[in-house]
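Complex 135.
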Amino acid sequence: MVKKGWLVFPVLVAMGLGGLSIHDKVYAKQEEKPKFGKNLQVLTFVKSKEELKGWMRMIKTSLGVDCDYCHNTDNFASDAKPPKRVARVMIKMLLTIRQDYFSFPNAPQPTCYTCHQGHKKPINEPSGGFPKGDD
Ligand code: HEC
Ligand code: HEC
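Predicted structure with heme C bound:
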């Protein structure tokens, strides 16, 4: 017991003396880690909270919905709402469209709005349907 006590003492002194710098180092490491996106599966390339916000604002405006259409706003990481799970597939599709078909110089960047135009579901055909027959 006595021996253990003497071992603990120098350790405590060392922690006390070095405490600030250890704390600073740990804090700096936490700062480097993104404080957003606990459950990002497709937007994994996103580098900052601002960039993620940009995507979410684009998505929200494109579909004409609020954040809570897809999110439990107390836990944004949750996948409980079905539209969020569909949206993930849609993001994947959009990234593929951009990479495979819009990578030429000065290519425009399609968005969710390109198809959705402010609707939850894009309108897939004209209101009167497609013309039938020869005309
Ligand atoms: C149409 C559905 C949809 C809407 C609307 C939407 N989001 Fe998202 N959001 C997603 C999807 C899908 C992901 C996960 C993306 C991934 O897996 O990479 C996500 C991820 C997030 C995350 C990261 C959560 C985590 O920890 O993993 C945050 C924060 C977030 N959204 C905030 C918002 C905010 C704020 C709004 C409103 C401005 C919004 N979202 C609107 C679909 C949506
Ligand atoms: C190439 C066209 C296209 C693009 C781009 C597109 N979508 Fe879609 N989306 C569709 C179609 C088509 C449907 C199916 C609509 C239906 O069921 O009638 C759909 C359905 C959805 C649904 C399900 C709606 C529901 O209530 O069932 C969500 C959510 C969605 N899209 C989100 C997104 C998001 C987010 C993006 C951008 C990352 C996006 N979409 C980009 C074509 C597109």
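Residues 59, 63, 83, 86-87, 90-91, 94, 110, 112, 114-116, 120-122, 124 surround heme C (ligand 2) (CB under 6 Å).
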